[in-house]
Every structure is written in C-alpha cells, then in structure tokens.
User: Fold these one by one.
Assistant:
Number 1:
Amino acid sequence: MTVQSPVHTAPAAAGGGSRPKKSKSWLATVPLLAFVVLVFGVPLVIILGGTFTREGTLSAANVTDSLQGAYLTALLGSVKLSALVAVVGALLGTFLAQAVVTSRFRLLREAVLTASGVLSNFGGIPLAFAWIATLGNSGVVTSALGLDSAGWSLYNFWGLTLVYLYFSIPLMVVVVVPALDGLRPQWREAAQNNGANTWQYWRHVGIPVLTPTLLGGVVLLFGGAFAAYATAAAMVGGTVPLVTLQIANALSGNVLIGHENVALALSLDMIVVAGLVMAVYLPLQRRSARWLR
Amino acid sequence: MNGAKVELRGLRRNFSGTTALDGLDLTIEPGELIALLGPSGCGKTTALRCVAGFEQPDEGAVLIDGADITRVPANRRDAGMVFQSYSLFPNLSIRDNVAFGLRVRKVAAAKRHARAQELLELIGLPQIGERYPHQLSGGQQQRVALARALALEPRVLLLDEPLSALDAKVRVTLREEIRRLQLSLGITTIFVTHDQEEALSMADRVAVLRAGRLEQVADPATLYDRPTTAFVAEFVGTMNRIPGKLSGRTVTVLGQDLPVEGDVPATSDVEVLVRPETVIVTPDPSSEAMILVSSFRGSTSRLRVQLGDLEMLADVPGHDTVRLAPGTRVRVELVERPVLVSASSDVAAAVPVSEHDVV
Amino acid sequence: MAALTPAGPMAPVTPPAIAAGPGGRAGRPRRIRVWRGVVLLVAAVYFLVPLIASFTFTVKDASKGFTLDAYGQILSAEGFGKSLLLSLGLGVATIVVVLLLTLPAMLAVRLSVPKLKPVLEILCTLPLVVPPITFVAGITTILQWGPDHLADTPFFQTIIAAQNPDFPVVLVLAYVILALPFVYRALDAGLGALDARTLVEAARNLGASWPHLLFRVIVPNLRSALASASFLTLALVLGEFTIASLLHYQTFPVWIYTISGSQAQVSVAVSVFSLLITWLLLLVLSSAGARQRSGS
C-alpha cells in the first residue's frame, strides 16, 4: 500500500460508493481524508515527535535550543518583520481601498481591484528579482538616483519590509474593499442626524464595524509575511535573521551534530505562532460577515 | 417637547442634468404631520434631505421657526430622522443605538441609559435594550430607529418612507403607532411616502409633489374630494376619464349637464374626471351598458362597466352585488355635483395608484 | 513561493455593492479630493516603478544602450526548457490529483452527509496555518529517516520512487496539500451557486446514472469553479520555491534562482516573463469568473 492509493480509489468511490443507498456516500470522502491524514498529518506528527527527541531519547532540549541564541533572534526577527508588514500593510491598504471606493471613476476602481488581485499573488523569486533590479546594489533606480553613494541597501530588515509590502498592501485592498462597500450611507447619515461629526461617526460606528475585517486582514498579512521564504532567501540570504532562513539552514545540515531536530523544533514554534494568529482570525471573520450582510 | 414651524422657500436642486426640486414652497405648521406624496423622482425625498441637511439646495432656503438653517451642517440641526431601512448601527446594542446622540453629546452613561429605556418603553419594546439590530425584525428595527430619532428631543421629525420595506400588516400597525406618538409629543413631522393610502390615513395635510414642484397641499378629505388639478385627482384615489363636451362652465357628459370646478381647458372636447363612488349604476335591460366584472369588497363592490368602447369603474354598496352580476345590462349616471375636467390629450398625466386592485 | 491568497483573484469580479447615489456625495470638500489624489499617486509610483525598472534592467546594455538579448538568451539558457516542463508537469499532475480527491468528497458532503462538512472544511483550511517550510521540514525528516529504517520493506522502494528527480511525486503530494485550501474555497463557492442537490435530484429523476450525472451534469455546470481551482493550483505550482529548493529539485523557480548567480539579466528577464505568464493566467481566470457571473 502506498500513499498514492487513495487517489486511484477516488473515482470509484464517487461512482459506486454513493449509488442508490445514500448511507454509503460518505465513502467518497475517505480518499481525501486519508490523503490529508497521511501526507499532511504524518509530517506534522514527525515534527512533533522529532522536536521532543534528541539522539534517540525524549527531551525538550530542541525546544530550549530553538528558543535561545541565534534561533530566538531569528524567531523574534520573523515576528517583528511580519508584525510590521501586517500593521503597515493593513493601514496603507485600507487607505488605498478607501481612496478607490470613494472615487467616482468606475474604471479606476476596476483597475485597482484587478491589479490588487494579481499583485497579492506576486511573491517568491520573481518578486525578489524585480526589486533587486530596481533598488538592489546595481538596480536601475539605485544608480539613477545615486542611492548607493548615500549608503542605501535593500538587503536588510527595512528593505525586506518594503518588498513584502508589495504583495501585502494589495492583499489588504482585496480583503477590505468589500467591507468598505458594506458601510451603508444610512449609518453615516444617521450618525450625523444624531449630532455626530465625521470623526465621531468613524470612532463609534465606522471603525468598530470595520474592525473584524481589519484585524482579519492583519492576520492574513502576518501569516503571509511570516511564512515567506523564497523572497527572503533570494534577497538577503542570511544577513537578516528570519526563522524560515534558519530552518532552511538547519535542514541543509548547518547544525551541530546531533542537533538536527532543532529544525523541527523551529518548525513547531512557527506553527504555534501561525496557529495562534489564525485562531484569532476565524471568529472575527464570522462576526464581520454578519454585520456587513 | 413641542414642534417647530418649518418653511421651505423656493427650493431648487439639480443633479447633473435632472431637476429634483424646481422652486418648492411649503410651510409646515408647528405640531403638524405633513405627508409629502408623489411618484418616484418627484423630489419628495430630496426635499426631506434638505431639511435634514444631507442635501444643500442650489437655491432657496429652509427655515425653522423663522431661522434660516440652510447652511447649518446636518449634525447641528434640530431634526430627528428615520430612514427607509437598515439604518441602525450593527455594532451597537439597541440601547446604545437609541442613546447614540446622547453619547456623542457626552451625556453620562447612567443618564443616557435611563433615557434610552424611557424611549424603548415609549415605542413598546422595553425588553430589547441588550439585543443587537440583526436580532430584530424589520418592524422592530424601524421602531428603534424612531426611538433613536426622538432621543435628542428634536422639534422636527423626518420620516423617509420608513414603512416601505415592511410587510403589509406591520405597516398598518406601525403607521398607527407613529401617528399616536406624534400626536402625543406634538412634534412637527414630515413624512415622505409614495403610498397614497398611508399619506391619507396618517397626515394632517398632504402635499402632492410633481417634478419638483408643489401640486397641491390640503387635508386628506379636501385632497380627495376637491383636487385642484387633474394630476392630483388621478394620483390620489381612482379616477374615471369620461369624454364630455364643454360649454362655458358646464360640461355635458353621459347625457347629463354638470357644473365644472377648477381650471377650464381651451378646447371643448374634454375628459371628465369621475370617482367610482360617484357613478350610479342601476339595472336596466334596455340599456347598452353592461357589467363586465364585479369584485366584492365587503361594504362595497367595484364594478367594471362597458359603455360603447368606454370602460369605467363604479363602486356600489355591497348589498347591491347580487342584482349587479357580470353580464347585467345597466344604466349609468353620475352624481350631480361639480366635476373636474381636463383636455382630452392630457392622458397619462398620472398613474392611478390603486390600479392594481381593479379587477 | 507564490503568496496565493484565498480571496486572491476572485475578488476583482465581486460586484460593487453600493454605488454612491446620484450626487449623494456631491459637495465633497476639496481637501478629501487632494488626499485621495496623493494616496493614489504614491500607490502608483510604489507599484509601477519596480515593474518598469525590472524591464529597464533587462534591456539596458553598457555598449549598445538598448537590447532584447536577455530575452533571447532565456530560450537558449541551459535547463530552461527542462525545468519549465517539469513545473508544468507537476502542475498538471497536482491539478488532476487534487480535483479527483476533493470533488467527489465535496459532492458527497453537500448531497448526503452534511455532518462531515465542518470536518472537511477544517482539514482543507489547516494547510494555511502550516508554513510550507515547516511542512518541508517534516517531509525531509521522513525521507531521511525512511531509508534507514525501512530498507527491507516495500515502503523503501516507494519512497525512492517518489523522489525520482525526473518526476518527483513527493512534490505533487506536497503541492496537493498546499493547494487544498484554495481548491476547497473555489469548489465550495461553485457548488453553493449550483444548488447541486436540486440538480442531482432532477437528473436522478430523469433516470441518469451516477457516472453520467457526475461528468455530464455536475462537471459542466461547475466548469468555472473547476477552471478557477485549476488556475490557482497551476499558479501555485509554477511559483513554488520553498519545497522544491529544499528537496533539491530543479523546478522552474529554482532554476531562475540558480542562474541568477551567473546571468543576472537573464534571471530578471525570466522573472518578468514568468510574472507576465502568471498575470495572464490570473486575468483569464478573473475574466472567466466575470463571464460566468454575467451569464447566470
């Protein structure tokens, strides 16, 4: 039996399993569930098991190692970078979305929304190279403006922030535009009618109504920046401490003998952070869906 | 709480080419409930929004108790407004919705909660303060919106088709309730509606608007019985148009000579406007006219009568229905009273709103 | 790694909910208009400059001034065709597997076992929480650990076969997991709009058999959702770097990275080129979505 076998049984289950007797149609879900458990679940179990094993014995040493020294710096660096990108990206994305939503030009709106859909999917190696060609040491803009003599470098924390925002801001636009559209003009007018000025409307109604969406956007942006590896690897290599780079480093064998499982511990740290952040997101999304219906 | 006098003076408003208000003049007396009635696009909502401050008229002025408030921003006007639907703030509880205006004015929490509770009792929903808008029915939401509009004790209440999104039964109870509240508070109220029945049953006076101008303003009975223009006559209630010959101030219609009321057109070929209840129908086997359809409505029956190539509507007492069955030959006469006439070409000046309940 | 997002390319076709009423916001203060202009201008500069600069970078030449040589060199560069074909093959395989897994399961859940829906939803959303790099850490460990412990069992052969560098099945497995959240969302939206239950009952009522029903009734009606799921998966596979590079497979993005050391201009040219392809894919996808919307 191989991990592939569920694939082959899938059509059979759909065709035969759910024939007249409806009670058997759940069989059609078995291949998918089995696949996920096997291909996704087993590596997770391995991560969990490996994290708490050192040289064949049960130990918390990997976790301890992963939470000190260079590893801790990398983990904190990733959290710091992702948090900055998430907050700044969410703010700028919301401003951009508001500028577009309140615009009377339909074409502008359509253009920005389409571009945002595309750019929010722009990541990885090509993104890194595009920015290297622009603001790298011999980049077009760098040499045109003479930035290199002014001490400019793209290959640091701030450079990464700038590059990550390139896909984060459009993602925020995509997330927040439906919510901005959902703010009913009656709410603003009702607030005015009750004596509220613009600021009071935003403070008591507009921002609270948008908050779940905004926080949800922050979470998504955080997750995207936190998990990003390719862009950072292509741009900064090891000069900026990031947990994804440390994991890749450890996986490539750059660890002390016997400490190979530190990579797994770091992975577990990442999953815990990402999981906690995602756990905030889901209930928020549900609430905003109810308000903006 | 007592009402203010509201004056609209020569209001004019253009929206990129279309004229919403074309020199509207209207004075609303203190404590009065006035309904702005008209087909969609007649400018009634724009007029209301000018009073609320959400629209700036291009020309003209809005006065409250003699003070010109045309340039006063919406959030500093003394008018509470109820919107068509979904205007409650979804993130605030019902109590906080009602107390919103007080919160903005920095009234202490205990005091504004007490006031909100008072208002919720006033609208008959004292239990729902802790709930959220999405947990309420449409009718309840509009009651709360009313409470919110009254929270700051405004001297003018503005209602922008507040019942149009509700189902028929709720609509009727709620309009009675609004009227009761309005009378007990004595607040000047402007009520925008396109539903003539709503306007006639609630308002002290009804202002009929057409293309941004005031067509007629009068109490409901006068408006119905003595419409000054053909437009009003046809927009309010149901109207028959019967060809007639005009001579001087008398018109000959269906063989009867009737005095003419209101404007007289230049031509002698006119159409006479006749309400269904002023058409008298009696069985007469020798007559040409015949009943096509009869729909029983309890106290009355509405008949559709064919007379040559003319069809007309007549309302007769319910107990006459048996002898006025479809197919019966009848004689048609009109009640002897002054009638309105209009030039024959002036068709489609208005669409009778109650067209749908004509069988 | 392409930062594929759940709301991604679907969003542009969402119809705008409320357009500002005629003149409803007429008397807008000039201050706001200025503010909006500044925001849009800054955004335009930020988003357009890297694109323009990348292109400029690939066509400038110290001696000739302007040249398209870099683009010409792409085709002749060693490994280009091979890596692109590998990525495309992986993409197609991933699409086939992920659709064969999800479609029957989601149909069954919608039609007769709605109780399983939350389970499916959670399982299909979980991969979003697990960064690809941690996933690859787990996989690497298995691949290293396996040969040591399973050398005498059939598992060993399987694991070796799955790592065949000409067509690494292990990547397909991993990509199926990565694609699950997006495919699930796309199909769920499609099935929701379809009212599958009524359709199936109507077809069964007319005597259609299950296979007939699946391929003649469901699939054609789901065409747009299936296309959307496929495009998203393809874009994901074509851009995925993390897993492929750490498992040492020469997929297209890994190849771009590899040649960047020796031929910087060509690598940027390929980036621009692959960007255009991705954009084209996504534009086709969003316009297909828009067409379906207007059709229904």
Number 2:
Amino acid sequence: MSSSARPRNSKGREMAKTLTLEDMAKYPFMPEAAEEVRKLGFRIDGLFEADYAPILDRAERRVIEALTTNPPEVRYDPSLYKEDVEMLSFPVAVALVTSLANEYVKRRYALAEARRAYELLKRESEEKIVEIARKFGWRIRFSGEKSGVIKFDFALNFIDYLRNASSFHDKDWKLINKFVINGEVHLSKQEVARLLQEEIRRYIEGKIDPKIKSALPEKIFERAEKIKQTYSSSFKELPTEDFSPSEAAEEAFPQCIMELYKAAQSGRHVPHVGRFALTSFLINIGMSPGLIVDLFRRSSDFNERMTRYQIEHIAGERGSGTKYTPPKCDTLQTHGLCPGMDDICRRIKHPLTYYRRKMRAVKAKRVKESKG
Amino acid sequence: MDTQAFIHERFSEFYSGNANGIEAPRSIENREFGFTLFKENMMVRHKGFINADELRDFIKRNAPSNVYYSTAYYSVPEAKMDEKGWLGSDLFFDIDADHIPAKCNKIHDSWACRKCGLRGRGPAPGKCPSCGNESFDERTWPCEICLEAARVETMNLMDILTSDLGFSFSDIKCSFSGHRGYHVQVESEEVLKLDSIARKEIVDYVTGTGIDVLFHGLESVRRDGGKLIVGPGLDEKGWRGRAARGTYEFLLAATPEDLRRLGLKKSIVDEIIANKDLMLESWAFGGPWNIVKGLGLKGWSKIVQRGVSLQSAKIDTVVTVDIHRLIRLPNTLHGKTGLLKVSFPPNEIEEFDPLKRSVAFRKGDVKIYVEEAPKFRLGDESFGPFKKQTVTLPLSAALFLLCKDAARVVD
C-alpha cells in the first residue's frame, strides 16, 4: 500500500492562509513552493544560464550536506542564502539525487531535509504547525486536553498518527502508551514536529522517482557525476540482513527461537507465526531447506510435500521469489512468542541481530578454546 | 448411513431453503471466497462472485462444510495471491474461547495422546504424563462459561474501539462465530489502507501489550519534603482509567496467593490484605497509592500491570494483523457444529444468547449413537451428558454431536 499522503488543501475554512516566502524557503517541499517556482517561470533546462548559478550551487550543497553531516541535516541559514535561492534549489537538488540513482543517497537526502524541517518546525507557532500538517492531509486540531499534570497542545486522528509513528521503536511512541480518546491521540508540539518529520521524509523519498530520470537535462547528470566522484566514499551500501555463517550455532539462538526450535524438534504443536519465525530465521542463518524439513518431521500433522513447499516459499525459491526475514522482536511480542528478554535482547530489535552478535562472541570463544 | 453424507444432506437441505438469508459482503466483487467441501476434505480458494445471487447459487449447489470470504478487497480476487492487487482490508478481530482462561477450566474438553493413546480432560498438557510425547488429538466444546468469558472480552474490545479509537457502533459488525467465540469487524473507509504494522499497533493497544503504566499516570512525586506516589483515577479516559479500574477489580478479589505471584514480599502482601477495605474505599479520595508503607513505584507497577490485563481484550493477535485473512461468512453453517454464524447489533451483546440465535435446524429428530459428550444446551433445551448410548435427539442437537465427531447416525 502507499502510505505517504500527498499534501493537499484541507477543507477547513481557516486554511485560507498561505505560506510566506520565508515559509517556502524553510519548507520548499510544500506544494505552494512548487507553485511559486512555476509562477517564477523557472525551468530546469534553463538552469545552466549564468543567472542561475547560485541556485545550482546551493542545490549541490544541499546534497553534499546530506552526505557529509552526521546525523544528516541540510542547513538552514538565511544569512547565507536568499529566500528564493533556498526555495528554488530544492527541486534542483531532488533532480540531482534522482540522477544519482542510489538508494542510500536517496534515503539519506530525504532524511537530511526532513530533519532540517523538524528543527524549524519545533520553533514555529502552533497555528503554523497545524497549517503545514493539514497540507499533508492530517486531521489535526488544537487540544488543550489535560491528563494528570500534562497539558497537550494537539489532537491528531489516530490513523494519521499510526501512519507515521509505527516506524518508531521507542516504547513512548507505542499507541498504547499515548493518551488516546475518541479516535484522537493527544500530543505535544515537539511530538507533532517529529511525526511531521517522518511524513516529510516519506514525501521527499516519493518525489525522488527514478521514472523521471530520463527527462532530466544532460547537465544535471554532469553535476551529479562530479558529486559522485568527490563523495563516493560516503555512498554506502544499505545493510542487508543477508548473511550466512557456514555453521549454524544453536548456542547463539535467541531464547524465542530456541523455544520454537525445541518444540519443533519434539513434535510439539508450533503455531503458524511461530513456524514462520523459526523457518525464516533458520534460512537466514544459512540452514538448508532440507535440514529444516527434517526438523518438522516429528510434528503430528507433518506433510513432507506441504512443509517443503512452505519452506522453499519462505526461502524465496518459489512464488514471488522474495526471501523472507523473521518478524522483529516487537512483532514476536505481539504474538506472545517472546519468552522475556535477556541482556542482548535489550540492545537489539531483531532476532537475527541477536544471533549475529552472540555468534561473534561464540566464535571468539571457539578460537580461544582451540588455541588454549 | 455414512455420517459425513448425512451431514452433507442436512446442510444441502438447509441451504436450499435458507440461502437467501446470506447477504453479500460489502463490495462482493472485490472479495475472495474460500470453501471447504464435504467430498474432498480440502480448501477451495481464490473464488470470486459478482453478486449475492451468484454466491447463493454456488452455496446451494455445493452445500460446503464451511464458507469463508476475505477481509481484504482485491482488484482481481480470483488471481493468484501475489497478482490479486490488494486494495485494502477491513479491521477484523477474532475472540475465541481457546485464547481465554475461563472458570470452567475447560473441563468439558478432552485430549488423547497421539503416541500412547492416554486420554484426559481439560486442555492438553505440555507432555503426556505417561509416555512424554508432546502431541495430542483435542476435542473442544463450546460451554456457557467459555462463551460468557468470550463475551466479556468482546465487550472490553468494543469499549476500546468506541471510547478510545472513536469508531461508532454503525461502523462495527459483531457476530457469534457458530463455535467458541465472537467476531468483531470494523468496515470503515478509515481503516482500509492500514498496513500490518499499523494493525499490530492496534492489536497491542487492545491487548495491553507493551504498556508501561508509568505513561498512564502512575508516578512518584516529591511533596512536602517526602516522596509520594500518585496514580490514575477510576473516571479517567483511555488506558489511564482502564488501568485504575483494573487495579480496583484486581484488589477487590485478590488473595494473598495472587499478590505473592506478582513477586511482592510477604510483609507487603500481609499489609495489603489487612488494609484492603481501606484501599478500596480510598479511590474516592485520590487512590490507594500511599496506604501501604513500603509498597513503592515498583510494586505498584506490578499491581497496575495486572489490572491492565483484566481490562484488556484477549483477541487472537494473528488474525487482526493478517491483511489477507479469510473469515467465516455470516448466516452460513459452521462445519464443526452445524450452528450458524450470526450477526447482531453491537449494542445488543449483553442480551445476546449465542446458543439460541445460532440454531439453524428446527424440525425433525434423529437417532444417533453417542460415544461421549458433556452436557450442552441449544435453544431452551439441555442435552446430555452422554456416554456410549443410543439416543433420539432433535436434529440441531444431533447434528451438533455428529459435526463434533462425537456420534454416528444409527439406521
């Protein structure tokens, strides 16, 4: 499903206000800014005339700032860049990132722009925040609701909340740890700004669309190539969960997987989610489908053909070809498969990460033993 | 006569007279249907229908043992799974007695070890006491106590869906499954596009999973040079109020054993028991938080956490998160009971009598041989218990035992 809401005008009457030029320099991804860019008659293929040099330079800086700051953040400094340059350089920077066609750069850039917006939003008035949030289709209003001693600034429809907060992992973002009444989540200004950061990040990622790449002028590619040559060391490959140590070590299994593993070994009933978690875990640490089939052999309803089919499906050898990874820790918790945390668990969010960490320790121990 | 053939014939008769009671689900043309048939004991999936008549005809012609449809909407429901084109999904909750501890202790259920054949009552043990084997054949029965427990959970769920999540009764469809539980379905435009991750957050919200009571009003504050504990009040909204009401409920019934099981020290447990009445009365004046000396934030967290679990709704978590789920179609027969899945307005749940409203067969008697069955009620009449005996029962009661595989037809 597509989860990024496109900014649109809210029906609310108070929304007649428009953003100022300063706002558009701060938040150049807003549709008003794009409209303003059009009104100015700005066209990307005219970009290489001398007049536009400051815009092109600033666009390049935006991308470079995203790549070289940590955590990534594009700067906002009105003393350094004029408002129109700040606004116009954004679509050009998006074109540069698009032409780079690198997933890591795309994500990093979107995050850097979104983090900048977050810093700016935190200092805005409540009215301005509501105005911007509603442009993204959020159903948000001023709250003033009190819970104990806390007074909340905003009330946000819980579906709009979930769309943005469900990627956050801290327990204070869990819906159940929020004050929820009548379909609305009551939030502080800072929390709303943080959720908007997430909405903006996804929105910008969505704008970096490889399909429009071919429509970009040649000169954009030349500039992009320059960035690539200078900063290619900052282009990282995205980390993947795909690793396959040659020997699967039971002693490095997290407790949740160990319990499922033992249950399967002894032919006890393993619920569907548990089977999926166990199988995908074993496949990802490099166990062969054949060995996994054998593991389920003692199950009372064992059906070799069916079991093999399911395992090969999870391994990506059938169907859509997707190799599945096991569910994250909080999903296992939801389904009652988490037996409780140990010290490693508290520092990780995924059973495979647990395995990888423990495996390192196990290997170190083995080396030590073989030497001793 | 062959029992399966007998059941199939009765289902067939039922559908030829009553298929018109089957309503098309919303946007029937976008739903996937699935059936289990008496002949081949397997699931037929990926079926699509363009209107209610076509669906009813199919059901009349085949008289399936079970009829399911997808909570999801697809562009091409008949296509293979990854080519269907997912458009959205209703928000669906399954409350099944299997997931809920009840006062009957499921004594009506039975199990048999698949290795040594040892039999026992109640839910199957982890290991066979005789041979140590860990897999069993289980037979479960819907009993009034189990169903009552499921009703309480369903009411908890509906309270959360309406007061906290803001759905109105008109968005919610409530049904008895025809076996051991209830289904609650939210069909609002709002929820259609929610992905599995967002649905998981909703599951955690209704089940109380991942709650930290310190976010819900329980805290230690400095006052007048000392430390004081404050906590949520009974009338508060959302989980704050629910945590408080659950805590009250727990304290009201708590035995020393219950309190010790939370990991509280014996001296604290004794103090709580000695001051119980005072603690319960204190809710009117700021709560019981500072009555027992030595019971600090940590101890209270454990108690309030226990209160949360009393107020949560024990749903089947997997079902709600699955956005491709097939669920039973209302007004069709349950193959394990011969009872109907029946829907009712959510505000009628308190008076709803599942074992009366779900009775499908109202005429005729059948002679059957019953292997073993606990006492059960259908409609206004009670039957059994039976053990190795031949009896003549009204059709609905006989079918119930036949579908449960606890009896066979006697010619």
